[in-house]
Amino acid sequence: MSCYLRHMQRLLDQAGIAVTKENRQDVDRLIHELVAVQYKNCPTTWKEVKQWIAEDEAGFVARLKEGWAKHAR
């Protein structure tokens, strides 16, 4: 699991996203897209995620849910 996905389990659960071996990379890419950080740049991504969560956790969860729904189409 990526360096920050395990720290985000509660938020992912709230967004209705069950991380599996098969979709882990897709979830990781979605989070990178949400915070506008190049894929695989984990330290910067996690920094942005923590900041976003501190400022607007509910908004972050909503964006996760929305992004995942679009991905599932």
Written description of the protein model:
- This protein is mainly alpha-helical and 73 residues long.
- It is built from 3 helices and no strands.
- The protein has helices spanning 9-14, 24-34, 42-72.
- It is globular, with a radius of gyration of 11 Å.
- The N and C termini lie far apart (24 Å).
- The mean pLDDT is 89.
Outline the biggest β-sheet. Answer: none
The shape is globular
Q: Helix/strand/pairing class, anyone?
A: mainly alpha
Name the helicity range.
Answer: 55-70%
- Secondary-structure element series: HHH
Backbone CA Rg: 11 Å
What fraction of residues sit in β-strands?
Answer: under 5%
N-C termini distance: 24 Å
Average of the residue pLDDT scores: 89
Uncertain spans: none
Reconstruct the topology from this structure:
Elements: H1 9-14, H2 24-34, H3 42-72
Helix pairs in contact: 2-3
Quick take:
By secondary structure, the chain is mainly α. It is 66% helix and 0% strand.
Quickly list its features.
single chain, 73 residues, mainly alpha, 3 helices, 66% helix, globular
